[in-house]
């Protein structure tokens, strides 16, 4: 069953879902700054001082890990991970492509279902398969930034210098512009990992950091098509951003067959539940997308 019943009434134009940081996020930031100064200036000559130091250090490490590894954490800056909950729209997104076989098969499914999706492409792969990227745009899909080469060792990527990160993202941006004649709006970092330099680099390039609401964990060989389908349908809600994979960078292989097999059922079930598929840009700013595809509901 679908976890949340979609609205069946007419969808109204809603304001952009971009919101300021909540008070509790600001409080956490203040705590991190306070912890930093405590670590520097609290003398450790007494047991209580030593305890404060280690508690402060532990809290700092916990907050840093939470901000870095929780995909939708707002600790280091704004992450767009869901749209307006009052509109029965969802965004279908794909990471790690393009691939000349699996991405094409996914595009065929989307075309047959008459819906639009958003593809977060790896710049290096886009350079190798330009025709696939151009087909995405021709058929009304959105192409966004997923870094230039999607570092195989994800733990190393956040350790890059700010200059290197900006270069990496900008190189992918330039490839997308060259192939699509459009300016990327979003970036999604590999596995949703982020830190202050990554967020700063995105801001410098005027990119909105994208997270996700529904994750199928459709890595190669892990799950069946039925499990992928069930995970998506059980976790979906109005305004959700669904992430699947049309390729796997670390293995160099195409998307697993179960992902492709699960996709038609996911789309059909969500349509029957009253959901409408939009691009990530349309979910971010509903008034920005004036065109529609037959059956897209936009």
Describe the structure.
43% of the residues lie in helices and 13% in strands. With 298 residues, it is an alpha/beta fold. The protein has two domains: 23-69, no CATH class; 79-288, Glycoside hydrolase/deacetylase (TIM Barrel, Alpha-Beta Barrel). Strands 2, 3, 4, 7, 8 and 11 form a six-stranded parallel sheet that branches. Strands 1-6-5 form a three-stranded parallel sheet. Mean pLDDT is 82; it is low at 1-20 and 289-298.
Annotate the secondary structure layout.
Elements lengths: L22 H19 L5 H23 L9 E2 L8 E9 L4 H12 L4 E4 L1 H6 L1 H9 L3 E4 L16 H19 L5 E2 L8 H9 L3 E3 L3 E2 L9 H11 L5 E5 L1 E2 L4 E2 L2 H16 L3 E3 L1 H5 L14
Helix pairs in contact: 1-2, 3-9, 6-7, 8-9
Oligomer: single chain
H/E element sequence: HHEEHEHHEHEHEEHEEEHEH
| Number of DSSP-assigned strands | 11
Structural class: alpha/beta
Strand residue percentage? 5-15%
CATH homologous superfamily of the largest domain - what is it?
Answer: Glycoside hydrolase/deacetylase
> How widely separated are the two ends?
24 Å
| Topology-level CATH name of the largest domain | TIM Barrel
Question: What is the domain total for the residues?
Answer: 2
Q: How would you describe the shape?
A: globular
Unreliable residue runs:
1-20, 289-298
Q: Write the CATH architecture name of the largest domain.
A: Alpha-Beta Barrel
Counted by DSSP, the helix tally is 10
Rounded to an integer, what's the Rg over CA atoms?
21 Å
- The averaged pLDDT comes out at 82
- Which CATH class of the largest domain is shown? Alpha Beta
For the sheet with most strands, the description reads: 6 strands, parallel
Q: Helix amount, in percent?
A: 40-55%
